[in-house]
Structure formats: structure tokens, C-alpha cells
Amino acid sequence: MVHVFPRPSLQDLIGHYDFKSKTPQDKICPDGSCRAAMFALFVNEELKSWPEQDIRQRTWVTIPEAVECCRHPWMRDALVNGFLKWQGHNMLED
Question: What pTM value is reported for the model?
């Protein structure tokens, strides 16, 4: 059986965020430095089942609620200084 999952619509690049990985390091990145590219997505369908449902819980939250749940400063920065600015800019264009 082949599972086909809908893909969210990629909107815009929110920004790049640097962080230290907690996974084992390698020759390319011995100090664990990583860079994440964050994108805004438009979710066009919510599935009743998904590949990681046994290990992850899906919860829809507002941006301020998401900020409160973030474990890492770079994630909070991405939400506050990246996504909220992006959202505000796009609301002005509508």
C-alpha cells in the first residue's frame, strides 16, 4: 500500500536561524552548529492519520501560544521576529 499525503503550500522564507544540535557531531560540523531555514506554510488539509502520529501529538495553537511552548530561544525568535512580522506584512497587502 502506498500512502500519499497532501503537501502544504510553501509560502515565503521567514528567515535563517542558527542553533547547536544535540545530536552527535560529524566531520562537517564538529561543534554541532546548525542553520535552520524557516518557511511559512499554508495547510490545505488536515489528515486523520499521519506517519508520526504514534510519536507526535498535533495541536493547533496561536503564535503567542506557540512561543510559550518553545524550548529553544531560536525557535521563539523565529516565531516572534520572523513569523509575526511576515504575517503582519502579508495582512497589510490583503
Answer: 0.60
- Per the structure, the complete domain to which residue 41 belongs is given by 9-93
The phi, psi pair for 53, rounded to 5°, reads -65, -20
Average pLDDT rounded to a whole number, residues 76-92: 77
SS (H, E, C) 4-50: CCCCCEEEEEEEEEEEECCCCCCCCCCCCEEEEEEEEEECCCCCCCC
Using the predicted structure, report yes or no on whether residue 15 has a pLDDT greater than 50: yes
Least confident of 34-43, 46-55, 85-94: 85-94
Considering the domain boundaries, does residue 4 fall inside one?
no
Residue 17 lies in a domain: yes
Domains of the chain: total: 1
- Residue 20 domain flag: yes
Q: Minimal CA–CA distance to 78: which of 15, 8, 13, 12?
A: 15
